[in-house]
Amino acid sequence: IGQIGSQLGSFNVNIASMQVGRKMVRGSAVMVLSLDDPLPEGVLAEIINVEGIRDAYIVNLQ
Hints:
The chain is of the alpha+beta class. It has 2 helices and 2 strands; from the N terminus they run αββα. Strands 1-2 form a two-stranded antiparallel sheet.
């Protein structure tokens, strides 16, 4: 959570809301973020390179 927040903050991306969940202690987790603005180009690639991140996707619900 901290690494993703720091990564987004370094690009001036504001997190409006965050949901995190997992099925078991120390197991894999899922994180869903809602952002105030569209994610700048190239940021998703940076997030995917964070250790422990398996997949990352952008979903636009407009």
